[in-house]
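REQUEST FORM: STRUCTURE PREDICTION
Request ID: SP-0412
Submitted by: Lab K.M.
Chain count: 1
Length (residues): 470
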Amino acid sequence: MVAVLLGLGSAVARADPSSANALGTLLASPALKGARVGVLVVDLDRGDPVVAHDSMRPLVPASAAKVVTAAAALDRWGPTFRFETPVLAAGRLDADGVLEGDLWVVGRGDPSLVSEQLWRLAEELRLQGLREIRGRLAIDSTYFDRVLWHPDWPRATRRAYRAPVSGFAANYSSFRVEVSPGAKPGDRLRLQVAPALPYFRVEAGGRTLERPGSLHVEVEPRADGSGEVVRIRGSMQPGDKSRTYWRSVVYPEEYAGQLLRSQLQAQGITVRGGIQVGTVPSGARELLRFRGETLGRIVWKLNKFSNNFIAEHLTKTLGAARYGAPGTWGKGRRVLAEYLQGLGGLAPGEAIVEGSGLSPRNRLSPASLVTVVRTAARRFEWGPEFLASLPLGGLDGTLEDRLEEPARPVRAKTGHLSGVVALCGMVPDAAGRLLVFAVLVNGARGPVEAVDAALDSFVIGLGNGGPDPG
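STATUS: Completed
RESULT:
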């Protein structure tokens, strides 16, 4: 098949026939009919273009934008960096481990604070001798501003991918809902929430019926800000497998505070008061500076599972580190833009609005994404951690069920929004060259599975190619 090798702002040097055919097949795919498509593939070592089509065209990158956030964070801090969360005592701490006052936790944007990490934090306090807090467990999250959701994000959903961003948050500001049928027809459905906290009030609804039915999870915040009500509507049949739903919270500090309180109590530390959100008072004495997971591990989770929460925490923290607290999306996107400028600049029409790619106003070209991946791969200080974070085709992360061609391993970041599909990463060809690629599809009208399959076939075709022997 004759491939279209030259497009708007694109160039090709010595394209091998297999890669050229792969591009032609991609552009002719019925799943991409009517869509805007940008493609660039280059040789990792030399930077020579292999194939290209509209490679300079700014397009919506969806979650492929996360490679920029990951690279900018690793470039600033390095893979061994750990975010720190100070814990302070406001009041007298006596020799018996009784704090006559409040225990303050000062968030610094650490996105790695899941249940296990908070258990470790509580353990460290126990080992320091803390036994009882007669006041409250208080949260200072002023390291970030109070804009918890980006204004570009969809507003009519409580799914976990749209979780609030706070200076102190836990479990990615999300929780799990597990629904299963009763033992016999007429029984109520069984509803469980994890983690089990007073933050959630569970109201079991729905019935076990002989006929098939649909399920709907409803989450409603309590007016006093102390938590949320979780309900289930609909029906299941006897013997149906349990169903899992992931949802986001609306009060991230209260949720994280209650989770930490439960871990303190698990360590034998009694908390007498409730949860308070405010600003740490002057004169409070630092007891602990808790260090979370390494940035290398955080970036691994960011890209493997396309975690929006991590991306936006890194974005705001980059902004705070560069321009001072509080961290904001405005400051963060300036830092990301500056990183891209340092790699060669943003082309006309390119813009980065936030760090996860959830905003449809982000615009990046395939050339910019290839530059980011190629630069990261060649950085000895943190490049290995960056590459290890990219999902492996057919093996893990968001590519676990894609690109299962066994002979050609692929590392690539996925991206999906309505009408948008993206893929960028690296693949070796048959001759052993490492190729860096980026494919952006905007305005796709076909089923997303068909568009994914077209991109996967293109990348597999690249892997089957090699240098032009001529």
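NOTES: The chain has two domains: 17-79+296-463, 82-293.
Reviewed by: T.R.
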